[in-house]
Write a structure and sequence with these properties.
This protein is of the alpha/beta class. It has one domain: Arginase, Chain A (3-Layer(aba) Sandwich), CATH 3.40.800. Helix content is 40%, strand content 11%. An eight-stranded parallel beta sheet has the order 2-1-3-8-7-4-5-6. Helix 1 packs across helix 10, helix 8 packs parallel to helix 9 and helix 9 packs parallel to helix 10. The chain is globular, with a radius of gyration of 18 Å.
């Protein structure tokens, strides 16, 4: 079976011209994956819209209501960084529901990828850093509530520390939070994850992998997880506007391939979200996000029951070619 993918056309909501959040990338990613033959339309599953029943497993009822009703105050919206609109409500619910569906598909098929997700700065009662509801946390709680997973590992490789996820699960032994991020970057206050790997600005491909490999392997061996939710942010890239790191395309590919192989050879299902990525060049940014789906597609296709995963380089191929919201 081909790699299951999740998308919704309403992953994109209108923003004012010149807004720094690259909203258009989500639909551009969906189109690029099809146009370049990375995926077929039949591989895509339509994301459901997360509603109160799912969201309330993580977020405060008052916060959910104020966001749905458009009554968040100006300071709350400034902290989020996105202007409220009914379209933003639907977009947020679609993204969150998409990650829930991605987790379902990962548990069924071993690996699945969303074309959005990774809103790890959202806390129980407020949003932050372009994150309104924490899709990874909601997916975790839904899987647990449905009895599909008892213990979940959030493996967060976005360049910014997953402060919302860390705070939400600080006292919960059934959820392990791991954040690999740039030490001197947003957010200023970083509540401790179960595992934080804070890296210096300017870290290169080799330095990155050397810093994480042993600790992540030990974490995967000891986590006892039923599901991994992997945030494959591309903002550690050398060209990212907000990242401050120096990974290349090859480095991101090596990272994603290594993470997926390490999880799958241990029998850990992986639900992938795309995380952060910021650039004025939307085409380059979209292609960067597509690296996850390219690698995941090949890893999924090359799995063998007898010997686990086969390794393959994809950079040359890349270059050649619920419930209702509210």
């Amino acid at each position: 079976m081909s790699l299951p993918l999740v998308h919704h056309p309403e992953y994109v909501a209108p923003l004012p011209e010149g807004h720094r959040f690259p909203m258009a990338k989500f639909n551009m990613l969906h189109r690029l994956l099809i146009d370049e033959g990375v995926a077929q339309p039949a591989q895509f599953h339509h994301a459901p819209l997360a509603g109160r029943q799912w969201l309330s497993l993580v977020h405060d009822a008052d916060y959910i209501d104020r966001f749905f009703n458009g009554t968040l105050d100006a300071s709350a919206l400034r902290r989020i960084g996105l202007p409220w609109s009914p379209a933003l409500v639907r977009r947020t619910c679609a993204e969150t529901g998409g990650t829930v569906l991605t987790a379902h598909l990962a548990l069924e098929h071993g690996l699945a990828c969303n074309t959005a997700g990774g809103t790890h700065h959202a806390h129980a009662g407020f949003g932050s850093g372009f994150c309104i509801f924490n899709d990874m946390a909601v997916a975790t709680r839904v899987m647990q509530a449905e009895g599909l997973a008892q213990r979940v590992l959030l493996l967060d490789f976005d360049v910014h520390q997953g402060d919302g996820s860390a705070a939400l699960f600080a006292d919960d032994p059934t959820v392990i939070t791991c954040s690999v991020h740039c030490e001197k970057n947003f957010p200023l206050h970083k509540p401790p994850s179960d595992v934080d790997i804070a890296l210096p600005a300017g870290v290169t491909d080799d330095e990155y992998m050397q810093a994480i490999a042993m600790r992540i392997e030990m974490l995967l061996d000891g986590a006892g997880a039923d599901l991994v939710i992997y945030d494959a942010g591309v903002d550690p890239h050398e060209s990212d506007r907000l990242g401050r790191m120096a990974l290349t395309d090859e480095g991101l590919i090596a990272r994603d391939r290594w993470v997926l192989n390490q999880c799958l050879k241990r029998g850990l299902p992986v639900a992938c979200v795309i995380g952060g990525g910021y650039s004025h060049d939307l085409e380059a940014l979209t292609r960067r996000h597509s690296l996850l789906h390219r690698v995941a597609g090949e890893v999924h296709a090359l799995r063998r029951p007898a010997d686990g995963m086969c390794d393959r380089v994809v950079i040359d191929k890349m270059r050649s070619t619920n419930r209702n919201c509210g």
